[in-house]
Design a protein that fits this description.
The protein is mainly alpha-helical. The protein contains four helices and no strands.
């Protein structure tokens, strides 16, 4: 399912990038991923749920969320299951 969204972007933000649909889609995809990661990390910090629960609700891979947390110097609490999953990755 798709959702049509129309936005205006200042021309100077796009300076140096190709003026093509694929470029715009890539930028939006990156932005959405970053926003989801930031939201997931905030939910985790707020104690809303476990890493597994939050990653599932946000549509993120748990391993990717752990990597993002480590990049921000946040050490997640690990269950024995999570430790085993990380060792296998």
């Amino acid at each position: 399912m798709q959702q049509l969204v129309t936005i205006e972007i200042p021309r100077e933000w796009m300076q140096g990038l190709p003026d093509e649909e694929l470029t715009y889609k890539h930028i939006v995809r990156l932005g959405i991923k970053q926003a989801k990661n930031e939201r997931a990390i905030q939910l985790y910090r707020d104690g809303v749920g476990s890493l597994g629960y939050i990653s599932e609700k946000m549509g993120l891979a748990k391993q990717d969320l752990i990597r993002e947390m480590k990049l921000r110097n946040i050490e997640p609490d690990f269950s024995e299951e999570t430790v085993q999953e990380e060792l296998m990755a």
